[in-house]
Amino acid sequence: MSSPKTRIFSWLLFDFANTSFSVMMVTFAFPLFFKNVICGGDPSGDAIWGACISISMLLVALISPVLGAQADYSGRRKRFLLIFTLISVISTALLSFTGPGYAIPAAALFILANIGFEGGLVFYDAYLPEITSRRSIGRVSGYGFAMGYLGALAILLLVKPLLSKGITVANMPNLHLSFLLVALFFALFAAPLFLNLRDTKGVARAADTARIREGVFTSVSRSIGEVAHTVRHIMSYPDLARFLLAFFFYNDAILTVIAFSSIYAQNTLGFTTGELIVFFMTVQTTAILGSVVFGFVTDRIGPKRTIVMTLIIWFVVIFMAILSEGKSLFYMTGLLAGMSMGSSQAASRSLMARLTPKEHITEFFGFYDGTFGKASAIVGPMVFGLVSSQAGSQKAALASLLLFFGLGLAIMTGVRTRSTNLNPDEEVISHTES
Questions:
Q1: Phi/psi of residue 100, nearest 5 degrees
Q2: Is there a contact between 384 and 401 (Cβ–Cβ < 8 Å)?
Q3: Does residue 425 surpass a pLDDT of 80?
Q4: Residue 10 contacts residue 193 (beta carbons within 8 Å)
Q5: Positive or negative torsion for Cα 160, 166, 168, 172
Q6: CA separation for the pair 342, 293 (Å, rounded)
Q7: Under 8 Å between Cβ of 274 and 399
Q8: Would you say residue 162 has pLDDT above 80?
């Protein structure tokens, strides 16, 4: 039996592992590879890439609640996480065999890889309340995001020599090798979680051992029934519902910034590949600091106040990006964006863990990471693209994100943060944050 510190460290290493996929395959290298190499720079590449993001996020949004309920019921959370991780790792490795003219196979493989990455987060995040106490949940959540950004920084340093000649057809062998390295990095550092974390007993095992032997179809049907029950009675947890709605809007804007950051920097401000690597390494560095520092802040002042604070920082980030005419101010914007990105996501995960009833922890995290989180990644990029095409300006599209941040902030002020997920041996806090 592994020690509590070993379990926490193994959990943190998974964040270190999977963020390599996020930064390389979603944010930086592969989007440019898909557009410039696979699609030959054709404008249709943007539309296909946008469809890849939307389709993968939509599918995760649809299946996450059902899978989360099934994991809660069966107690096999780790098995689900392993399956999704393998899907992402294998699909990422296979992307190293794509090239010019392979748009459809590459799109299909990326959709699978992103489903594996995003779907796995549902089960990964749900471990958080089990590996730490409520009093330190903010710190551990912050450490997780910090480890994730450290992993992103590590993979960028690892592939930097391979990308030094740019993301072009001439450099395709090195690009293929970089994608293989991402798959290996993901698999290697994810492994400790599967060795050291164990599943707790599911609802079915605790209630009726005989039900475990029921067929797959019956089990899945029961899970769908659990999700329907959650949807019908979600208003029984009004503060959780308000938080999820607020999260939908502000996370929408954050995910859109992440998805379009490299394209904005290259198309609007003329960043080279080398400059983009340095820029993203800079962002990861401040994201690490933001995750750790605001993890302590979250435990001190509460996740709600921390989220409000970071949303105000996001307003400043958007205004700075809009006003940027040269690269120097945009670098400073990246520093601030990195800090607010890590802190807002870590505090959100902490608040979700506090508001979620323990008996539905994976299922509700399925709504959090899946239905709300992934669906927001469909709406935001769509609005950004529409405003950009109609206005002929990516800065105008960036300004549209202020509406999403504003709605998120307004709704967030109405959330009361009394915990519904306390351990019996911990102090019960009955006060609410203003």
A1: -55, 135
A2: yes
A3: no
A4: yes
A5: negative
A6: 10
A7: no
A8: yes
Tokens of 57: 């996020």
Q: Find out whether 371 and 61 touch, Cβ atoms under 8 Å.
A: yes
User: What pTM value is reported for the model?
Assistant: 0.76
| DSSP of 80-132 | HHHHHHHHHHHHHHHGGG--TT-HHHHHHHHHHHHHHHHHHHHHHHTTHHHHS
Looking at per-residue pLDDT, the higher value among 319 and 370 belongs to 319
Q: Tens digit of pLDDT for each residue in 222-251?
A: 656 666 666 676 678 888 889 988 998 998
The length of the chain in residues reads 434
Q: What is the pLDDT of residues 250-277, one digit of tens each?
A: 988 888 888 778 777 877 788 888 889 8
The contacts of residue 197 (CB under 8 Å, 6+ apart) are 2, 7, 10, 11, 78, 127, 131
Tell me the three state secondary structure of residue 215.
coil
Both tokens of 323, joined, read: 């006003």
Nearest to 281 by CA among 149, 147, 145, 148: 149
- What gap in Å lies between CA 250 and CA 242, rounded to an integer? 13
SS3 162: helix
Nearest residue to 349 (alpha-carbon basis) of 80, 148, 75, 144: 144
Structural domains of the chain in order of their starting residue, each with its CATH number = 4-196+216-412 (1.20.1250.20)
Binned at pLDDT 50, 70 and 90, residue 334 comes out as confident
- Spatial contact of 60 and 368, defined as CB atoms under 8 Å apart: no
Task: Give the CA-trace dihedral at 165, 286, 348, 71, to 10 degrees.
Answer: 50
CA distance 288 to 257: 18
**Segment 57-86 mean pLDDT:** 82
Whether residue 134 is predicted with pLDDT greater than 80 in this model: the reply is: no
Q: What is the DSSP letter of 369?
A: I
- The C-alpha atoms of residue 248 and residue 252 are separated, in whole angstroms, by 6
The confidence band for 202, taking pLDDT boundaries of 50, 70 and 90, is low
Do 26 and 116 contact (CB within 8 A), yes or no? no
Residue type, 405: F
**Cα–Cα distances in Å, from 14 out to 126, 127, 171, 424?**
13, 12, 30, 29
> Does position 342 have pLDDT exceeding 90, yes or no?
no
Q: 283 or 43: whose pLDDT is higher?
A: 283
Among left, alpha and beta (phi > 0; psi -120 to 50; other), residue 302 is left
CA separation for the pair 17, 283 (Å, rounded): 18
The one-letter amino acid at 274? G
Residues of the chain with pLDDT > 90, as a percent, come to 33
